[in-house]
Amino acid sequence: MHFYVDSLHLFGFVQGRDSFWRKHVLQTDDADTQWGKMMSLLGVEVTFALSLQARGKVERPYRWLQDRIVRTCALEGLGQLEEVRTVLREEVDRYNNHQVHSITREIPSLRFSKAIAEGNTLFRPFSPPKPYTSPKGVFCLRESRIVDSYR
């Protein structure tokens, strides 16, 4: 199974430049994030969107939603966090349940319901890999430590 993601730091370590105060020890491919460790444990291969076109496909809906929320709040004069959250909920509901998608020509929630009914989806019931018996054993922090008299 593959998972296609952009280059957000959550998904992978991105090497920054060394500075006077800090010298990086690890390079970009030497570090494994907690998310990466969990995906590896589940047997999921992660593919990073490296081209601008691929990253744009991942980021475009979020940029559109963010722009729409900012404009709505500016037009309505909203500035309090709870008011903005209400606008966010309304926009997400409108996008998922009412708006016809420009590419698929279907409403996303109806398309998803139809795919589940036809068995045409990659969603599967989750069962932890052996030897784990609970999802808590999979979705936890993982760290290797060396403890001896010199460290």
Estimate nothing, just give the exact number of structural domains: 2
Share of residues in helices:
40-55%
Query: Could you tell me the mean pLDDT?
Result: 79
- The number of distinct helices, counting runs of at least 4 residues, comes to 5
Strand content: 5-15%
Major sheet: 2 strands, parallel
Uncertain spans, ≥5 residues at pLDDT below 50?
Answer: none
The rough form would be described as: extended
Rg, rounded, reads 21 Å
Structure classification: mainly alpha
Strand order, main sheet: write it out.
1-2
For the secondary structure, the number of strands is: 2
**Helices and strands, in N-to-C order?**
EHEHHHH
Q: Cα distance, first to last residue?
A: 39 Å
Provide tags for this entry.
151 residues; mainly alpha; 2 domains; two-stranded parallel sheet; 5 helices; 2 strands; 43% helix; extended
In short:
By secondary structure, the protein is mainly α.
List the helices and strands and how they pair.
Blueprint: E1 2-5, H1 34-41, E2 45-48, H2 52-76, H3 81-97, H4 108-118, H5 135-138
Parallel strand pairs: 1-2
